[in-house]
Amino acid sequence: MPLMRPLDPAFPIDRQIALETGPVVLVNVFTLDAEDEQGFLTTWQDDAAFMKRQPGFISTQLHRAVGDSPTYLNYAVWESNAHFRAAFTHPEFRAKIAAYPASAVASPHLFQKVAVPGICVA
Fold first, then answer.
1. Residues 6+ apart with CB under 8 A from 29
2. Rg (the chain; Cα; Å)
3. Mean pLDDT computed over 112-116
4. Backbone angles phi, psi at 24, to 5 degrees
5. If DSSP states are collapsed to H, E and C, what string results for 51-92?
6. In the predicted model, is pLDDT for residue 1 greater than 80?
7. What is the pLDDT of residues 62-103, one digit of tens each?
8. Boundaries of each ABM domain copy (predicted)?
9. How far is CA 2 from CA 15, 25, 31, in A?
């Protein structure tokens, strides 16, 4: 299982998933050793395929940092925090994340859209 390092240590993912809100966007930054990239991609693909089949899942996208940095950013959109919580705590998913390379460090955090007049809508 990848080490979990919260983006905001004062409010880690375990506290975030308890809230009743939605829709939510999961942003997860992964850091890992370069030699573990292929193993990471294989495992991420498997866990993303599981999430894609879960109720409330809308979409996901994986990004790789430019250059030589083996850093990845994933974001996934969910209809509600309850849907995300059910998938994230599902025993099958918990078993899948154990397959991530030992060097992988995950920093998951949940977000909601914000309206900024004249720029973006919520």
1. 7, 71, 72, 73, 106, 107
2. 15
3. 95
4. -130, 155
5. HHCCCCEEEEEEEECCCCCCEEEEEEEECCHHHHHHHHCCHH
6. no
7. 999 999 999 999 999 999 999 999 999 999 999 888 899 999
8. 24-114
9. 19, 20, 10
Give CA separation, 53 vs 28, 38, 69, 81, in Å: 19, 23, 31, 16
**Does the pLDDT of residue 115 top 70, yes or no?**
yes
Q: Are the C-beta atoms of 83 and 54 separated by less than 8 Å?
A: yes
Instruction: Specify the 3-state DSSP secondary structure of 22.
Output: coil
The C-alpha atoms of residue 114 and residue 121 are separated, in whole angstroms, by: 7
pTM, entire model: 0.92
Where do we find the tokens 């899948």? 96
Q: Which two tokens stand for residue 52?
A: 């894609």
